[in-house]
Write a structure and sequence with these properties.
The complex is a heterodimer. By secondary structure, chain A is an alpha+beta fold. Helix content of chain A is 27%, strand content 29%. Chain A folds into three domains: 289 residues, ATPase, nucleotide binding domain (Nucleotidyltransferase, domain 5); 67 residues, ATPase, substrate binding domain, subdomain 4 (Actin, Chain A, domain 4, Alpha-Beta Complex), CATH 3.90.640.10; 108 residues, Substrate Binding Domain Of DNAk, Chain A, domain 1, CATH 2.60.34. In chain A, the strands form seven sheets. In chain A, strands 1, 2, 3, 4, 11 and 12 form a six-stranded mixed sheet that branches. The two termini of chain A are 34 Å apart. Chain B is 66% helix and 0% strand. The radius of gyration of chain B is 23 Å and the shape is elongated. Chain B starts with 19 loop residues before the first helix and ends in an 8-residue tail after the last helix. Classes of the chains: A alpha+beta, B mainly alpha. The interface between A and B is large, with 103 and 97 residues.
């Protein structure tokens, strides 16, 4: 059977990797490239180009070359993020059915998951060529901060590309899996993921083959692309000053400046100064093309990038506050995402966390590598996830072999129980910590003395949290919180609702996601419509709604009509097709 | 660069080194495992959260204890561990795991935990998490809009709370915290007051991220 692959579907680049026989490798395309640009271009001759060929068209045919759709995936038309993207987009975004977003290219309209599906399809093709087998299963990664709609849209994109999705995996978790961190020791890890279009900081607690997400915080509109735009603007201003050509007058020149900006940024990771030559940015009198040469130094780039890096550190601060952990509590900081290749970023991260961040794996590839390991584990190709060799920081001594042996539960509690007074402290003399009433143990059943011991399996277990609060919109546009932010999944919460009008036969429950106190500040996930209710006076009919969040972070809603004592057919109407 | 070398083989990492008695205790047949899961299912929705996570019930557990207890619990009941089990066992394990995840949610959050442990001390073993969460949200909301003195009930607690308000007004969070702790020691069941204290502790907490 063909192996399952891991796909890191990124904003800027997509990477596909496979783990076979204990060896994990990134799969390369025909030309030996590891990164597949997440770009799709509609060529005038009717071909649909994906990847590097499409990326080249960004300069010459910006209008018909679609990129960075991940930022918009699963979002709704009219939301601030979409408005913002529309202003700076070089291609045309239009409103699709049910307030979804579509791109208009050469007279056709495509929903965003279709664009992503084309990229995933190309990744699948690269994998099949490299492996010589048909690939049908994959683990796909998404940012930890992705909401339900965004995850669903990603899943749909993979399905459209003909792949069965084994698991939607969080990118930071994948990165930690790739490093095999904490698989034998216990430690907390901060994953700093500064990609092309998004920034995410995720705090993980990893112990003996188990990964727990402690907190996650992010900004889905903060990435290397922003640095490129800022650099492009600087070049544009200089060009206007020096040659009198206004780049903003020509969409092709805008794309050219962006490409030049990115080129400079990448160059400046290894050299102190770099230059680009822009050909034919405009035409002088007599039709002579105007060329423009621009030079940038690393310190100038750092000045331009600083506000963006400051914003990433503010997000780090937020996540630490949420988890109430000090930077000193973290054993490792992992750098992920192409933008963390900038030396300046590494310095700032080191300054913030007080330790040298880990970057042994290529930050572009590490997520795909972790996804591939997860895919192998899920398809039963059991491979112990071993820590990768760590030249900079030698690992602590090995644990006793019985702790290393998979899932044999160690006797509880692991930490010797020291009597801790019940909060609130301090009752020094009173000494009345939580004492259970005597005889309680006779009234309650006792838990079995042993835990079940599932067969030893080197699968990393993932304990995930929901990144955003899930609520229901109630009367007057207020929200009724159902599942709070950073609650571990899977989880189920139930809530009873009643009718508000006499004789009401239909109830609409609108599910929103976000931290706003008013429903309109949050993203609408969908509507649950309960119809065919027995007509009754308002307040007489009770409906129990169960919200179940599964291990993939996808929400299932069930509803029970209590009066009839039966489960009412509930339809989840996803209102945005993203 | 794209190929990652196979991990170094670790010799003798497994059973032989283990003492025989221990080794026997660590082996369970599938049938034994399944029976154990069903025994857990029978009590999972009834026992208190401390017992469910196999934590001692006589003292309030530390954060680290709660976490490692839940991790051990997850190793035993996580759905990924039952992919190959019979559907009935898979469902049973999932239900036990969900109960344990609720226990973790409650014991891992400072305010949910205080509220729950106070209830437990009165003999209430289980309350739906939703109800605890809603009560805590109400406490937090009340604490936000009231002074400590308004939240305290008894005379002595009010006196300590007034001091706390005074320190809060001066921005002396550490002193305010001490005064509030005093008030709360007098009224351990005053949950809005506990929420007020928690809000101060959150403010006092600085992750110490250095900003060059």
């Amino acid at each position: 059977m063909a192996p399952a692959v891991g796909i890191d579907l990124g904003t800027t680049n997509t990477v596909v990797a496979v783990s076979q026989g204990g060896l994990t490798r990134v799969l390369l395309d025909e030309s030996g490239a590891n990164l597949l640009p997440s770009v799709v271009s509609w060529h005038p001759d009717g071909r649909v180009l994906v990847g590097r060929e499409a990326r080249r068209r960004r300069v010459v045919d910006a209008r018909n070359t679609i990129h960075s759709v991940k930022r918009l995936l699963g979002r709704r038309w009219g939301s601030p993020e979409v408005e913002r993207a529309r202003r700076s987009s070089t291609f045309e975004l239009v409103e699709g059915p049910k307030r979804s977003i579509e791109v208009a290219v050469r007279g056709m309209r495509y929903p965003l998951p279709t664009i992503s599906a084309l990229v995933v399809g190309r990744a699948k093709q690269i994998a099949e060529q490299a492996l010589g087998e048909t690939v049908t299963q994959a683990v796909i990664t998404v940012p930890a901060s992705f909401n339900d709609l965004q995850r669903s849209a990603t899943r749909r994109a993979a399905k459209e590309a003909g792949l069965e999705v084994l698991r939607i995996l969080n990118e930071p978790t994948a990165a930690a899996l790739a490093y095999g961190l904490g698989m034998r020791t216990s430690e907390r890890i901060a994953v700093y993921d500064f990609g092309g279009g998004t920034f995410d900081l995720t705090l993980l607690d990893v112990s003996d083959n188990l990964v727990e997400v402690l907190a996650t915080s992010g900004d889905s509109f903060l990435g290397g692309d922003d640095v490129d735009s800022a650099v492009a603007q600087v070049i544009g201003r200089a060009m206007l000053r020096d040659t009198g050509v206004d780049a903003n007058m020509n969409i092709g020149v805008v794309a050219l400046l962006r490409a030049a900006a990115e080129h400079l940024k990448v160059q400046l990771s290894t050299v102190e100064r770099a230059d680009v030559e822009l050909k034919a940015v405009g035409y002088a009198e007599g039709g002579h093309p105007i060329d423009y040469k621009y030079e940038l130094t690393r310190s100038e780039l750092e000045t331009i990038a600083k506000p963006f890096i400051d914003r990433t550190l503010a997000v780090c601060d937020d996540a630490l506050r949420q988890s109430r952990l000090d930077v000193a509590a973290f054993g490792s900081v992992i750098l992920v995402g192409g933008s963390s290749k900038m030396p300046f970023v590494q310095e700032r991260v080191e300054g913030f966390f007080g330790k040298v961040p880990r970057i042994e794996y290529n930050p572009d590839e590490v997520v795909a590598v972790g996804a591939a390991i997860m895919a192998a584990v899920l398809t039963g190709q059991e491979r112990p996830v071993e820590p990768v060799s760590m030249p900079k920081m030698p690992r602590a001594g090995a644990l006793p072999s019985d702790l290393a042996a998979g899932f044999a539960p160690s006797p509880l509690p692991v930490v010797a129980p020291t009597p801790v007074p019940l909060p609130p402290p301090p009752p020094p003399a009173a000494g009345q910590p939580h004492m259970l009433p005597s005889g309680r143990s006779q009234q309650l059943p006792a838990v079995p003395s042993v835990l079940p011991m599932p067969p030893e399996r080197p699968a990393p277990l993932l304990i995930d949290v929901t990144p955003l609060t899930l609520s229901v919109e109630t009367i007057a546009g207020m929200v009724d919180v159902i599942i709070e932010r950073n609650t571990a999944v899977p989880c189920t919460r139930k809530r009873r609702y009643t009718t508000g009008v006499d004789g009401q036969t239909e109830v609409v429950v609108r599910v929103v996601q976000g931290e706003g106190a008013v429903a309109s500040q949050n993203a609408v996930l969908g509507e649950l419509v309960l119809s065919g209710l027995r007509p009754a006076r308002r307040g007489d009919l009770w409906i129990e709604v169960a919200f179940e969040l599964d291990a993939d972070g996808i929400l299932h809603v069930r509803a029970v009509d209590e009066a009839a004592g039966r489960e009412v057919q509930a339809q989840m109407r996803v209102t945005a097709q993203g | 660069m794209a190929t990652h070398p196979p991990p170094p083989k670790r010799a003798s990492a497994r059973p032989s080194a283990r003492p025989p008695a221990r080794a026997a205790a660590l082996v369970q047949t599938h049938a034994e495992r399944d029976r154990t899961v069903l025994r857990w299912l029978a009590v999972a929705d009834k026992v208190d959260y401390l017992s469910l996570l196999r934590l001692p019930t006589t003292v309030a557990p530390s954060d680290a204890q709660v976490r490692s207890a839940y991790h051990a619990f997850s190793r035993a009941f996580h759905p990924d561990q039952y992919r190959d089990a019979a559907p009935q066992i898979r469902e049973a394990a999932a239900r036990v795991f969900a109960a344990g995840t609720d226990a973790y949610r409650v014991l891992n959050d400072p305010l949910l935990r205080i509220r729950y442990l106070r209830l437990l001390a009165r003999g209430v073993a289980r309350v739906p998490v939703e109800e605890l969460e809603r009560a805590v949200r109400a406490d937090v909301e009340r604490a936000k809009h009231a002074t400590a003195a308004q939240l305290a009930k008894g005379e002595r607690a009010k006196e300590a709370a007034e001091r706390a308000d005074h320190f809060l007004a001066m921005g002396e969070l550490a002193y305010a915290k001490r005064a509030l702790e005093e008030a709360l020691a007098l009224e351990p069941d005053n949950m809005p007051l506990a929420a007020k204290l928690e809000a101060i502790e959150v403010k006092l907490f600085a992750p110490r991220g250095r900003k060059p």
